[in-house]
Amino acid sequence: MTRISKIKAEDTYKLRKTVLRQGMTLSHKMDGDHKVDTVHLGLFESDLLVCIASFMKSSRDDFKGTQYQLRGMGTSKAFQGKGYGTMLMKKAEKLLTSKGAEVIWCNARVNALDFYRKLGYEIRGEVFDVPQVGPHFVMFKKLA
Ligand SMILES: CC(C)(COP(=O)(O)OP(=O)(O)OC[C@H]1O[C@@H](n2cnc3c(N)ncnc32)[C@H](O)[C@@H]1OP(=O)(O)O)[C@@H](O)C(=O)NCCC(=O)NCCS
């Protein structure tokens, strides 16, 4: 059985380290983790946290309206490809829409482009490099 709920920044750290920071010196802690309007969501399977994402209010000049940046999106390796990332993102979009969000954007790893494309996210601009992590594109989705 799965459930999705709000979690604390600290709850994301273990999965961030293993799924997103393996072999890197980059910190698993992020600026904005503890801001009042930041939302951390977790998907649990049988009480095991297997998928995480964090949403931080952050505006880019090239988008209009209230914007949240998605950061730290990751599914535990053994649980990838089961639809959990998609479930978490759909729940997040509903929640953020109810908070007045108009755009969700992220710096998407090139290996995850198809995941975001399937959720309706579009690329904005050119590829750029994030040291240690690799090539990224800005991707965004306008919420209804
Ligand atoms: C990207 C990631 C978060 C997706 O989570 P997930 O729970 O596996 O996603 P889902 O099972 O909901 O997959 C949805 C679709 O995206 C596709 N997809 C998932 N991960 C993908 C990847 N790494 N590359 C390409 N496509 C991917 C799947 O093919 C799936 O489509 P399908 O159902 O038609 O086959 C997960 O693979 C992950 O944690 N990757 C490592 C960390 C990472 O790159 N995070 C993103 C940082 S920007």
Automatic annotation (TrEMBL):
InterPro entries: Acyl_CoA_acyltransferase (IPR016181), GNAT_dom (IPR000182), YpeA/RimI_acetyltransf (IPR050680). It holds the Pfam family Acetyltransf_1. Residues 1-144 form the N-acetyltransferase domain. Keywords: Acyltransferase, Transferase. The keyword Glycosyltransferase does not apply. This is GNAT family N-acetyltransferase.
